[in-house]
Amino acid sequence: MNRILVVDDDPALLRALRINLTARGYTVDLARDGTTALAAATKHPPDLMIVDLGLPDMDGVDVIGGVRGWLQVPVIVLSARHLEPAKVAALDAGADDYVTKPFGMDELLARIRAALRRAAPSAVAETPVTVTEAFTVDLGARRVIRDGADVRLTPTEWHLLEVLVRHPGRLVSQRQLLQEVWGPRYESETNYLRVYVAQLRAKLEPDPSTPRYLITEPGMGYRFEP
Amino acid sequence: MNRILVVDDDPALLRALRINLTARGYTVDLARDGTTALAAATKHPPDLMIVDLGLPDMDGVDVIGGVRGWLQVPVIVLSARHLEPAKVAALDAGADDYVTKPFGMDELLARIRAALRRAAPSAVAETPVTVTEAFTVDLGARRVIRDGADVRLTPTEWHLLEVLVRHPGRLVSQRQLLQEVWGPRYESETNYLRVYVAQLRAKLEPDPSTPRYLITEPGMGYRFEP
DNA sequence: CGCCTGCGTCAAGGATGCGTCAAGATCAGC
DNA sequence: GCTGATCTTGACGCATCCTTGACGCAGGCG
User: Fold this and answer.
1) Quick one: pLDDT at residue B122?
2) Pairing of the two strands B171-173 and B149-150
3) What are the residue ranges in chain A where pLDDT is below 50?
4) Interface test mutation site (partner B, options A20, A71, A96, max chain B beta carbons within 10 A)
5) CA within 13 Å, CB half, A95
6) Cut 0.90: pTM above it
7) Helix-helix angle A11-23:A105-125, to 10 degrees
8) Is the pLDDT of residue B123 over 50?
9) Which long-range contacts link A63-71 to residues 24+ away (Cβ below 8 Å)?
10) Mean of the per-residue pLDDT values of chain B
């Protein structure tokens, strides 16, 4: 669902947060110091960050400064410092929220939900629309339009199309398609791909027997050609 | 600069906030209860709201619900309730931050700056009223008009309709609907959606058996089609 | 030339999700 | 404490979707 990067030097706290957050369906990245945190944020940009102020190698405020500017990610500061100047400094440095230890897990989860909720519209505001001569795919609104009318896609059809459209012009391997749409255990069920690609072609291609947009790369995978 | 609406029943606190906020260059509106607060928000849409939970005429959570949906304004809750359930409820109801009394003025000001900072780009004043050929939804006034007469909606029906209308033309997943209307713990109760969408259709659609405005996307969610 | 692998097509079963209805539980107002 | 409205919960029929298998066809290779 959503990726959360937790930065703290207390292993017990890291563990507690990892368990609680993964149980709620979040993907969790952990970092023990600022350097690894910044590296992790570069590699897998998170949707939200939880940052402790007291880190071994740098101050948490500098971590915030390190991502602010190039990453529009909400930051929740988690700190043992109760004093007001620390809070003001962290908030003015770019933090979105400040929670003092010890904290209630339910409250933190609620604040995470609030932060993600208000960040959602900005992330979706840039509606990624893919236009071809035959049809239009609106990933944000989750709809496909052809000849001015909506095309009804089943959830699986939509999911498959989504993966292909997200990599325009590039080859997507059967393994990757099966894994993203059906899950890791279906990597060998290439049958599914044949059936559902055929259904997508029937609904989208002008001439389904000679595909123009959903191209087969024999033995390798499929490609969406815009 | 920025307009802030403060809702609290304590005259001393209102005065203190008015002085401090105007000194920082904010324009300040004051309200002593929920009714006047909602009226003030309709007349002069604020850029930020500070809401106390204990109001004489209604709960602060209801004030948040009254503006959420038609006004994208950050809300900071200011409350004497320290208990976690109250915080979670307020945050899930749409609040962006929760500060407990007694509070430090500098911290509150910093939280105000943080809330305004992230809200700045999306200062989109969306149209509070949506018109279709069959009915009219007024998000600001919380009214639905059909054939010139008011349609009676229950609170839950209204809440559901509100979420759908706020994303016109876009698919809203069942997860998102359940989370916003019933709360994070009801994400799997798809029964509720079926029941309440049916009730909305019965009250709004010209032909409830063949929906025109409240469209089902099987397996994915629902869509409001203006 | 024949075999084999991989792809496209089709159809049928079983499973799932949706709409509908109604009754019990809960809440609010008097 | 009662009454009506509202919310929750369960059951049922029906449509749709997913899965699975079989078949034909084309291209590569021995």
Assistant:
1) 47
2) unpaired
3) none
4) A96
5) 28
6) no
7) 60
8) no
9) A63/A7, A63/A34, A63/A37, A63/A38, A64/A90, A64/A93, A64/A94, A64/A95, A65/A93, A65/A94, A66/A34, A66/A38, A66/A41, A67/A38, A67/A41, A68/A93, A68/A94, A71/A41, A71/A45
10) 91
- Residue range B185-212, pLDDT digits in tens: 998 999 999 999 999 999 999 999 999 9
CA angle centred on B159, ends A116 and A114, rounded to 5°: 15
Could you check: is the Cβ of residue A156 within 7 Å of any atom of nucleic acid strand D? yes
Question: Does residue B165 register a pLDDT over 90?
Answer: yes
pLDDT at B136 over 60: yes
C-alpha distances out from residue A55 to A28, A86, A219, A225, Å? 19, 14, 50, 48
Closest among B213, B206, B122, B198 to B164, alpha carbons compared:
B213
Residue B41: count other Cβ atoms within 10 Å of its Cβ.
Answer: 22
Q: Are strands B27-31 and B143-146 parallel, antiparallel or unpaired?
A: unpaired
Residue A126 confidence (pLDDT)? 62
The DSSP H or E segment spanning A120 is helix A105-125
Under 8 Å CB pairs connecting chains A and B tally to 78
- Asked whether strand D has any atom less than 7 Å from the CB of A102, the reply is no
Q: Are B48 and B116 in contact (CB under 8 A)?
A: yes
